[in-house]
Amino acid sequence: MKFETIKENGFEYIEAGEGPVVVLLHGLMGGLDNFEGIIEDLPKHGFKVVGPLLPLFEKPMLKTTIKHFTKYVHEFLEFKGFEKVTLLGNSLGGHISLVFAKEYPEMVESLVLTGSSGLYENAMGDSFPRRGDYDYIQTKTEEVFYDPKMATKKLVDHVFEIANKRESVIRLLAMAKSAIRHNMSKDIPKLDFPVCLIWGKQDGVTPPHVAEEFHNLFPQSDLYWIDQCGHSPMWEHPKEFLRILEEWLPQHVK
Q1: What is the pLDDT of residue 29?
Q2: Diameter over CA atoms, the chain
Q3: Is there a domain that residue 35 lies in?
Q4: Residue 64 belongs to domain with CATH number
Q5: In this predicted structure, what is the pLDDT of residue 173?
Q6: What is the domain extent for residue 204?
Q7: Tens of pLDDT along the chain (254 residues)?
Q8: Which residues lie closer than 8 Å to 43 by C-beta, 6 or more apart?
Q9: Burial track 185-196 (b if 16+ CB lie within 10 A, e otherwise)
Q10: Could you give the number of structural domains in the chain?
Q11: What are phi and psi for residue 80, nearest 5 degrees?
Q12: Are 245 and 196 in contact (CB under 8 A)?
């Protein structure tokens, strides 16, 4: 990632721009570079973009839970002195956003969810991982995207490295179990914030019916589709993702 991170008070994060705060929360196998287009562009439209790097594979086993990382995000936002924010989460980051909104509703202005877990946890460990099988890891990584070329060698190498570390695999499974325990279907109808759902039409991890279920459960939400797009729309189609954000955010964020 070409953006330099800031390291202070035990946190590592990026920060750009001035204005209403949009907090980027990445997924289990993702990172801040997945949001590169947003980090570059959104500050030009009057928003402050902040993204903490979530230490998903660095915490003790007992803290490898969605509840712990929700608390971690809360501690980060308190450290930064932000009173009200928009949370933009992909995959596991979306799930953390949902639990955060349940636990700290006074701090949430709005939510943007893309390929979010929270209702349907197919993604986080069905037959994954197969240690030592690079071709299998490459295939599984390619399946995350509509365009398999998005699964670069660098990305596949990163996933392969995680899959071949016993400690990382145990944490993956711990997060998968935590996600199942934190199904949000009963809580979402109580989350009365403006919500923007941006979904890939060909998302095979959290399929289109998941987006529709989210849309039906939220008291106020807008659902946008991006065609020829998999599980990470902000990464695979950054221009279209930004077009939607730049239309939606000014209408719902003060």
Answers
A1: 81
A2: 50
A3: yes
A4: 3.40.50.1820
A5: 82
A6: 6-121+183-252
A7: 567 899 999 999 999 999 999 999 998 888 899 999 999 999 999 999 999 999 988 877 778 899 999 999 999 999 999 999 999 999 999 999 999 999 999 999 999 999 999 997 654 444 445 566 888 889 888 999 999 999 999 999 988 888 888 888 888 888 888 888 889 999 999 999 999 999 999 999 999 999 999 999 999 999 999 999 999 999 999 999 999 999 999 999 97
A8: 16, 17, 18, 19, 49
A9: eebbeebebbbb
A10: 1
A11: -80, -15
A12: yes
- pTM score, whole prediction: 0.92
CB 111 within 8 A of CB 187: no
**Residues pairing with 21 in the sheet:** 48, 85
- On whether residue 210 sits in a domain, the answer given is yes
SS3 track for the chain: CCCCCEEECCEEEEEECCCCEEEEECCCCCCHHHHHHHHHHHHHHCCEEEEECCCCCCCCHHHCCHHHHHHHHHHHHHHHCCCCEEEEEECHHHHHHHHHHHHCHHHEEEEEEECCCCCCCCCCCCCCCCCCCHHHHHHHHHCCCCCHHHCCHHHHHHHHHHHCCHHHHHHHHHHHHHHHHCCCCCCHHHCCCCEEEEEECCCCCCCHHHHHHHHHHCCCEEEEEECCCCCCHHHHCHHHHHHHHHHHHHHHCC
Please name the residue that has the structure tokens 């660098």. 154
